[in-house]
Amino acid sequence: MHTIRLNGFPGSADHAGAAGSHRRDLFGSRLAGRWPGHLDPMHKIFGILVLWHERARQRRRLLQLDDRMLKDIGVSRADAVHEASKPFWQE
């Protein structure tokens, strides 16, 4: 099995800005490479909750894809089931 990377949420590799040199926080403001160290504790907690919610949503959605769609993205049914079986807090 190979690892399926869920992308597009804070903390993922593709969450960088358009030029790739700046990262953005949950509200879209530029952080100039200071992600997430400068955020206050409530922002951090909120960010983690958003991350977990998005991860769980993407894993549920992965199970809804038919075999043709999974093949299009290069994922087997077994890999999709394996990824979806992970708890939301596990990367």
Protein model, in words:
- Helix content is 42%, strand content 0%.
- The protein has helices at 41-64, 67-72, 77-84.
- Helix 1 (41-64) packs antiparallel against helix 3 (77-84).
- The longest helix has 24 residues, at 41-64.
Q: How are the SSEs ordered, and which strands pair?
A:
Elements: H1 41-64, H2 67-72, H3 77-84
Helix pairs in contact: 1-3
Characteristic terms for this protein:
elongated; 91 residues; mainly alpha
Separation of the first and last Cα atoms: 15 Å
Biggest pleated sheet: none
How many domains make up the coordinates?
A: 1
Q: Secondary-structure element order, as H and E?
A: HHH
Instruction: Return the average pLDDT rounded to an integer.
Output: 76
Q: Give the DSSP E fraction (strand runs of 2 or more residues).
A: under 5%
**Quaternary form:** single chain
**Number of extended strands:** 0
In the predicted model, the low-confidence regions spanning at least 5 consecutive residues are 9-22
Number of helical elements:
3
Q: What is the general shape?
A: elongated
Short synopsis of the structure:
This protein has 3 helices and no strands. By secondary structure, it is mostly helical. The protein has one domain.
